[in-house]
Task: structure prediction
Amino acid sequence: MTHPQQKLLEVMVSEAFACFKRGDHEDGKALLYSFFDKFDPTILQETAKDKKFIYELIKAKNSDNEVNSMSALFMLDYLKKYGVEL
Result:
């Protein structure tokens, strides 16, 4: 089953990555956070328990690719900010 606003969510993520590419980290972060706000909190809790996923985010955060690095950094930050224990 797809999310009723799937197209909107796809555009939000795409624009967040475009923001990171052009160095607009503030808007990229806001878009990424808005995207994550659409998730059921239990999904976020389960995601945070996935050690391999968290490890991959940490690796991506340290990447030389600024888009990958910023998106991973803000994903980890979002999980922490909203009480998900890492």
